[in-house]
Amino acid sequence: MNLSEPLSVDTKIADVQNSVDTRNLKIDKVGVKELRHPVQIIDRRGLQQQTIATFNMYVELPHNFKGTHMSRFVEILNRNDRDVSMESFPTMLHEVINHLDAEKGCVEMSFPFFLKKKAPATEVESLMDYEVTLAGEANKEQALSSVKVTVPVTSLCPCSKEISEYGAHNQRSHVTATIHTTNLIWIEEVIEIIEDEASCELYGILKRPDEKYVTEKAYDNPKFVEDLVRDIAGRFNADDRFQAYTISAENFESIHNHSAYAEITYGNPSLK
């Protein structure tokens, strides 16, 4: 065979992945990990954000198959430019199991999401970025998806404020919410709920009047990590769209050599 010549389309090549495996062991997840691909995210206004997403894509492999077809995962992303929203994400899940002829599959898609915000006093506009992950699993009959959003906020310690003659220690905190919903909820809605329940929200640009505002707002609204997760959970519980959730808050303590952490989990949806 002359390796310099291209293979004929009629040339038969062994399909090793489809060969029989005799070890009688099903594989729960097999696929591709850390695959980066450009996507267009549809926001609440119906506008597109162009960004780069990192994908993990897997299927369940039956005990009698030696392997899966890894290239088919990449084919799904390369078929056309992907417009992704909370509404369209389940379609991708079914596309995975159909294209790979699998009984069950899952997709995780992480990307930075940007919001334009106005500073509280001067109204100077700047962008804030948030880490978002859409994740889901599907079988032939059902798809189950979730959204995870990490929101940086300010927290101010109630104890420090109470015991000090003046001032109180405060720090940046990361609040992460992983949510299963019964109806559509926008990423922006989750961000707004979390920022509303923090001591103060963050901004990309702050002028001196804005710094005064956020400093005083945080001082007037002190919260422990326990307060953060409870107050956010209360907001979620009041909205019937929230079927299940996990909320965590981590304070990167400014006066301690450790972080403070709290977490609440409600519900545990699973495929039937």
Task: Give the strand content.
Answer: 35-45%
Q: Could you tell me how far the N terminus lies from the C terminus, measured between alpha carbons in angstroms?
A: 52 Å
Residue runs with pLDDT of under 50 for 5 or more positions: none
CATH class: Alpha Beta
Any idea how many domains?
Answer: 1
Number of helices: 6
Please bin the fraction of helical residues. Answer: 10-25%
Q: How large, in whole angstroms, is the Cα Rg?
A: 24 Å
Oligomeric description of these chains: single chain
Give the SSE string.
Answer: EEHEHEEEHEHEHHEE
Helix/strand structural class? alpha+beta
Whole-number mean pLDDT:
90
**Outline type:** elongated
Largest sheet: 10 strands, mixed
State the fourth-level CATH superfamily: Urate Oxidase
Describe, in plain words, how this protein is organized in 3D.
It is a single chain. With 272 residues, this protein is α+β, with helices and mostly antiparallel strands. The chain has one domain: Urate Oxidase (Roll). It is 23% helix and 39% strand. The chain has 6 helices and 10 strands, in the order ββαβαβββαβαβααββ. The protein has helices spanning 70-78, 89-99, 158-163, 187-196, 208-220, 225-237; strands at residues 27-42, 48-61, 83-84, 104-118, 125-139, 143-156, 170-181, 200-201, 242-251, 260-266. Strands 1, 2, 3, 4, 5, 6, 7, 8, 9 and 10 form a 10-stranded mixed β-sheet that branches. The longest helix has 13 residues, at 208-220.
